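For anyone still unconvinced, we reproduce a single protein record, the chain in one-letter code, the fold tokenised, and leave readers to judge:
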Amino acid sequence: MDSLKTPAQTPTCPAARATDTRQPEAVRIRLQGGSPEPLQGDRLELSPQARAMLQASPQFPVHTPKIRLGDQGQEVLRLQADLIRWMPGWRGVLVEDGCYGPQTARALTFFKEVLGTGVDGRCLDANTERLLDEVHSGQFWIKNPDGRPRHRRQPEQEEPYQRALTTGHPLRGGLDGLSPDQVRRVAASQPDRFVRYRGFEARALTFKRFLALEKTVEREFPGHRVAITCTTGGKHVGTAHGEGRALDLVLERIRDGYRPDTHEFDSSHLEDLARKNGFETLNEYLHDSPWWTGPHLHAEAWPAP
């Protein structure tokens, strides 16, 4: 019964200090606010429930991805801007629209592969975020005191990296680019920005007008759609295609992709629909031109409204 009369121990009580010295070294250091070295010898095995509780504690933060595929907002916009700052060949190819889509994921995958932080661009992990912060601040390119590069590329990645600088690899090629909603969002604020849509490259306004034309054609030509066959991706300087204002279009049957020839449908009606949706046209189903490559409708999104 005498133990019931023992006074409460405080930090100034000798009994308390004696009890503290008997604590395991790791516990004693943690109580004093330190960071203990890993214990040697026998390890305490935690139950799954206990481990989950420890991870939920502020002392054991869980490192979850900051942003991931499907997210939108300013953090995604900064990610895209920093990737372009690291890889200038992506300017005009990787769209800065604040939408974490497949194109952004592919760019981040390439960044991770070259820097050795992973191969999955569907989320931004802490190590990759640290490197991108250096890109953002400019410290990424500052050399070490001994003159060596701060971040050396892997030998097997040097050739793809150099190719990406000049060609935009791996973002060019078969990549479809933006979704229709992303096209409309970019066109609303930056109509002259070059973007990719369905593997073709042109101004956002041009593709926005194509989306409107597409709906009209499917209504006016049941069972058919209008398909893009050429934009040239800004390669023909001084032409409407090179400026991202022109699309070459054809009528296409949805069921099997068959493209009717000149005598099989009223191409003048297709031309009229294109004009109503903001295009100036040249009907190359009916009229040849110096650049004629086959029956199609040449449509230019000019001038801007």
